[in-house]
Amino acid sequence: MSAVMKKHHTKLPxxxxxxxxxxxxxxxxxxxxxxxxxxxxxSKMVGRVLPEDVFDHIEKKFTKAGVLLRGTRHxxxxxxxxxxxxxxxxxxxxxxxxxGKRPIGKLIAKRIEKIFHVNYRYFL
Length: 124
Prior knowledge:
2 domains, 434 Repressor (Amino-terminal Domain), 2 strands
């Protein structure tokens, strides 16, 4: 077997990224440094990322339920299509729920609770 094989370029898995541990409202979050630095307020402290800078922006742009839904999906390592199939919605609806353009609803929240063991009330 002397066939020439090309090696594909690969990115390091996300677990090899530098991760910041941010404490916000009593909870610890692991956020990739590259993401957190986008929200860094340069005028406050040079070289430091404050949790308020990251989370205040995210909560204004997306709903808290949408952020939690996206975080749950990322925690499980699922794509939107995969998660949508598990909770029996379309990928488009899941995208709208994550971005805060569509409410999650009690029925879907209970499906999420059953599959991913997250209290459904967080999504309402």
